[in-house]
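Input sequence (189 aa), recorded before submission:
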Amino acid sequence: MRDDVDPVDARLAARLAELRAERGWSLEELAERTGLSRSTLSRTERAETSPTASLLNRLCAVYGRTMSRLLSEVEAEPALLVRAAEQPVWEDRSAGFVRRSVSPPHAGLRGELVEGRLAAGADIAYDRPPVPGLEQHVWVLDGALEITAQDDAHHLATGDCLRMRVWGPTRFRCAGPGDVRYALAVVLP
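Predicted structure, token format:
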């Protein structure tokens, strides 16, 4: 990539390459779907050329998004550093659950990091994942946690880590005697 490339154009190029990779398409397949040449697409994804509105419109059509949505995904880079005081915290007092978004989601990134806390006795059931096939890594930092996914129960103690893809219902339970604190890495499929 050239040194004189506009940062927004560079992020747009990277996002276009990500969208193609997410679908598992080769440049040749994308060229067939859009009617654009493989070399034009390659140069666009490497930020060697700035895409025209017409080119972006064709790409948006095959990726099933509006141009506004595509551009909003690349307008601003995510913060490299998220200070503890700036990390959003959400609390469900009735369930005994506190969720800190340590590394908040961003349209251009596939992963986020969350700190979860469950009070002793807390039991939270989810009937489905927000995104089928969501990848989760649960690392218990302090305490004990029971997780049920795909009808399999997992008992995690301090230091244990469970990796899973979530397709159906899940349940997070803190049997006690104390609270549990865990890190949750979430990665979009």
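Checked by second reader. The CA atoms of residues 61 and 166 lie 29 Å apart.
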